[in-house]
Amino acid sequence: MPDGGTLMVETSRENLNSQQVASFERANPGTFVRLSILDTGHGMSPDIQKRIFEPFFTTKPIGRGTGLGLSTAFADITHMSGGLEVESEVGKGTAFHIYLPIEAARQSTP
Ligand SMILES: Nc1ncnc2c1ncn2[C@@H]1O[C@H](COP(=O)(O)OP(=O)(O)OP(=O)(O)O)[C@@H](O)[C@H]1O
Ligand SMILES: [Mg+2]
User: Fold this and answer.
1) Where are its TM segments located (predicted)?
2) Residue 88 and residue 73: Cα distance in Å, rounded?
């Protein structure tokens, strides 16, 4: 959000069926913790959205971004049998939703 804005973090508990986890690479249906990060930044065009999880894909100027942020997040979340979703509209903002199986979330609580 280069010109400022609102950043929100939300959590919820979600039951997902097999259809709802179909787009996640290795998640099983069940109960998930959902962590959402919502911003009112510049958003992304559909063409950019398609590529954001590619390693080294960045729209930042040379020397500013590695393009590894989201590909790393995607790999880590997939490894935990979770899922990562994005919703975005140019000029309006972006929402990322992280889904983690509730059992994995419980195991990482000290
Ligand atoms: N919240 C967001 N709003 C708009 N565009 C975003 C958002 N998050 C990511 N993007 C787009 O996705 C691209 C890839 O993001 P990613 O985090 O992988 O790399 P980066 O942010 O460019 O680099 P780094 O994470 O190393 O700073 C960004 O360059 C940007 O175009
Ligand atoms: Mg980043």
Assistant:
1) none
2) 17
CB 94 within 8 A of CB 86: yes
Amino acid in the structure at residue 109: T
Residues with C-beta less than 6 Å from any ligand 1 atom? 39, 41-44, 48, 52, 57-60, 65-71, 94
Of the ligands numbered here, which is closest to the C-alpha atom of 72?
1
Cβ–Cβ under 8 Å, residues 27 and 79: no
* 18 CA → ligand 2 middle, Å: 30
CA dist 1 → 41, 51, 66 (Å) = 4, 20, 18
Model pLDDT for residues 68-105, shown as the tens digit of each residue = 999 999 999 999 999 999 999 999 999 999 999 998 76
Q: Which CATH superfamily is domain 7-107 in?
A: Histidine kinase-like ATPase, C-terminal domain (3.30.565.10)
